[in-house]
Amino acid sequence: MSCSHHISRIEYTRTVELGKGAFGTVHKAHEKERGTLYAVKDIKCVNNEDLNNAITEIKALGKLTHVNIIKLYNVQVSQSAPFEATLSLLLEYCSKGNLNEQLKNESTSTENFQWMRQILAAVAFLHKNNIVHRDLKPQNVLLTSGGVVKLADFGLVEYFGRKNDDQSWYDYYLNLGVGQGCYVAPEVLEEHYTYKADIFALGVIFYAILERTFIVVDDERLYGIFVGSNRQPLGILMFNSKRDVNLPFTKTTSPAITELLNRTLKYEYKARPDANEIGVILRQCLSRPWPCIIL
What we know:
Blueprint: E1 12-21, E2 24-31, E3 37-45, H1 48-63, E4 72-81, E5 84-92, H2 99-102, H3 109-128, E6 131-132, E7 141-143, E8 149-151, E9 158-159, H4 169-172, H5 186-189, H6 196-211, E10 214-217, E11 220-223, E12 226-227, E13 232-233, H7 234-241, H8 255-264, H9 275-286
Antiparallel strand pairs: 1-2, 2-3, 3-5, 4-5, 6-9, 7-8, 10-11, 12-13
Helix pairs in contact: 3-6, 3-9, 8-9
């Protein structure tokens, strides 16, 4: 894992709010000297959990250098009360917002594949470095003005490498149930999971890109996989039923892609392909003379 980010002093001014989530508020920012655009994420820490998540994100972004992972340029700390602090992360600016917003608009098969390929590249890089993201969802996939994918929000990342000889199998598995309910794998809800939870979430994102199915929560569309008359998220339905679920495909016409998604979204995590296997299948599709996907 390389550590090539150079954290330097950059003077900037916040402007419009870009978004607000569980782990902070993001504003657009201008560098005072050259006018370069950035995004600044303010993480308010009022307890140890908040602080640990912020430090986790800063450490991860400081070490991970990849074209499809958001860049961290600067970190500032300010204290507003005796036991309250705000950590401000100066990040790469992505003018096209997040993928969940982009999915409201039409896109070509080429754009869809490029999104999928770049998201996969970021996840494969994390897994190669023994890191699980644990919060993969369209809202955490950002897009630059040139359409380059930037994976963001690393506050829940966790190291997951080979099992140590002195480590029990119980201690080896990740056991904290985290992530957004629309995208979590069933084993996350069982609090006994591996990096394959990221693969499940990746499959949900791919399905959302291709099929554009969504539910509306608080007047916002959430794109994912929602099954049955009550529109239940796939991972939750699998957790309750303890089995695979047949996926409805209405826009995805390629047998290779439907088979890939069915494998990626297996209830049994050991049956899912890893990121490298998914990459091989996507490359095979892209090399064919006909479109693999028709929207």
